[in-house]
Amino acid sequence: MKESREGTKSDRVAKSPSVGSLPLILDIEDFKGDFSFDALFGNLVNELLPSFQDEEIDSLEGHGNFGGNDALPNGHMRVPSDVPKSAQGVSTPLFPEVDALLSLFKDSCKELVDLRHQVDGKLYNLKKEVSAQDSKHRKTLSELEKGVDGLFESFARLDSRISSVGQTAAKIGDHLQSADSQRETASQTIELIKYLVEFNGSPGDLMELSPLFSDDSRVAEAAAVAQKLRAFAEEDIGRQGIAVSSVVGNATASRGLEVAVANLQDYCNELENRLLARFDAASQKRELSTMAECAKILSQFNRGTSAMQHYVATRPMFIDVEVMNSDTRLVLGDQGSQTSPNDVSRGLSSLYKEITDIVRKEAATIMAVFPSPNDVMAILVQRVLEQRVTALLDKLLVKPSLVNIPPVEQGGLLLYLRMLAVAYEKTQEVARELRAVGCGDLDVEGLTESLFLAHIDEYPEHEQASLKQLYQAKMEELRAESPQQIDSTGSIGRSKGAAIASSHQQISVTVVTEFVRWNEEAISRCTLFSSQPATLATNVKAVFTCLLDQVGQYITEGLERARESLNEAAALRERFVLGTIVSRRVAAAAASAAEAAAAAGESSFRSFMVAVQRCASSVAIVQQYFANSISRLLLPVDGAHAASCEEMATAMSSAEAVAYKGLQQCIETVMAEVERLLSAEQKATDYRSPDDGIVPDHRPTNACTRVVAYLSRVLESAFTALEGLNKQAFLTELGNRLHKGLLNHWQKFTFNPSGGLRLKRDITEYGEFVRSFNAPTVDEKFELLGIMANVFIVAPESLSTMCEGTPSIRKDAQRFIQLRDDYKSAKLASRLSSLWSGSS
């Protein structure tokens, strides 16, 4: 349609002789749909533009020298400035259709304005029409809403009516169902009364019963009816027995029901026995369906307890004596042979695995047969534990008497405890396995605990008694080994002093480690038997106290034996102390004996140091064991940890006291030998050399060399054995005693300047040795000794200056100055009197 209209307009333009007078026809339809201004414009000017386009092409070809910018917007060509105006006036317009196009455009604008007015009028009419239709629509909607509200009210009334009718119908249905139920109950009651009358005959007369009670195919129904009759009759008898009535009819009824109850009981017993017999026959043939049928019927008799117990009791493992004997042989071996805990453990594992497999097989049968399999499994597992396992445990665990303890050669209490632990652990394992297989509501763990209750109640006493027995046996073993060691260590040429030290048994860390191993094993049993933390802490504390007693007693006795060596060596020294006037032969013998006593002292010193070292190692082992294994078990109980620490300190205090006394004796032994060496080796000429111009000897004296060599040799064991504060205290005390002993020793000699130099050399030697003690107070004392030795070296007139310059030696300087060989000749007493009076 659009194309036809455009064609019509083109024809009209072409036919008109004058473009300006052309009546344009623009339709509103031209602006609907996919409107294109370019198309509209083209349709208007297509009749004029083709001729213009042809003329423009020809003029461009004829005037190719004109630039593209010579054309004016109105269609005329721009004339160059050098062309005369006359020539410009006669030029023909290049676009003569411009005027026609302008007229065409004006007419088009007028028609477009008219069209706009038409469109506006139509839009106004449409708005009025839409407004009227909208008002009408709103009115219609309002009426519809009122109608819908009425409809909803009608539906609500209808729903309420339907609900009321439904409730009425439900009530009618309930009444009908109740009436039907009452009818059925009445019918059943009539039947039950008829059956009750049959059972109300003479006592024991069960011959004239209904076919229901003799038909094997209706056994389940007969059992249900019989149980109902029994329940009713017994309930009625109970009411009649409670009520006090003198009515004869009631008494008669009561007697009649008693006859019925007796007959029903006999019938139920006979029926139950018949079903059990059928159940046994089916069980032997493995007819599970028949067994399940009988078990279902028997469940009506006392909830099937008799059937469950009967089934469990007829299992071969409960009635075959050979099974019990086989269990004993498997676990305990042949009669008369000593069975080890490891053998018992393997035997119990095999036996319990066999029992678990049997119970698992029985569980499959029980699940297929019984309507309440969990109850049957509970009875089965309980029977296994109470009969088969208990019978074995009674033979395996024979509780020993604490009055007459079995000897260690036969295993002692330890064998019983190990057997108990193995049996308890393995039985707990099989209990868990049986729980996994299935045992209903049975508390299998609690039942297992009850099997060992008699043993576990007295377990702590047996454990402590066992540890004491092991300790006593070990001590007897060590005492038996001691004489053999003495015989084997004695040799020709060995000194008597060395033999004294070796005659006493030394402390052994291996033995203490064995004590700890015993205790560790006992603690593992405590953990196994004690389920409650408080009970465990109590038992652990008691067992650990046994270890403290054992270790404390052992190391204390070992230190006492080592002290005995020191005492014997001291006795040897005192035995050979001679008077001042003896013969040369006696003196030689005494000197030889003194050498033996010195060797005994040195050997006993080393022996005691070894004992102290091993004692410290033993205590460290116990402390480490306590920290690693004991302390965490005591924490759940308040105060248990602190109490054990206090007990450990108390147990070791006796050993510490003996060690302290022994170390004091060691110092006495060392100092005794030092004094002997000084007395034997120190000569008067060592410190009073003749002043004849000979070069003085700057080497230490022979006595000093011997003493230092002895101290270096004997204290080597002390440096190794002692540690920490113990070592520091011992060496400090020894250094002080050595300082004091040397002062007393030098008080016996007279010194000249040359001897003073040699004394200073000795002091230097002693000082260098004691420096290894790492005792500052001792080092300071020997440094002061070196300074004080100068009182023998300086000239008499310089003594006063030296003493005044060194106030720290003034106290001892007075005694040493008196040892100068020129003390009297130089009249030093009068010279220094003012110094001594000033210091006092």
Automatic annotation (TrEMBL):
One cellular component (GO) term of this entry: exocyst
Record key words, sorted: Coiled coil, Exocytosis, Transport
Family, per entry: Belongs to the SEC10 family.
Protein's name in the database: Exocyst complex component Sec10
Pfam families in alphabetical order: Sec10_HB, Sec10_N
Domain Exocyst complex component Sec10-like alpha-helical bundle: 221-830
The keyword Coiled coil appears for this protein: yes
Organism (species): Protea cynaroides
Region (Disordered): 63-88
GO BP terms in the entry: exocytosis; Golgi to plasma membrane transport
Taxonomic superkingdom: Eukaryota
Domain Exocyst complex component Sec10 N-terminal: 99-215
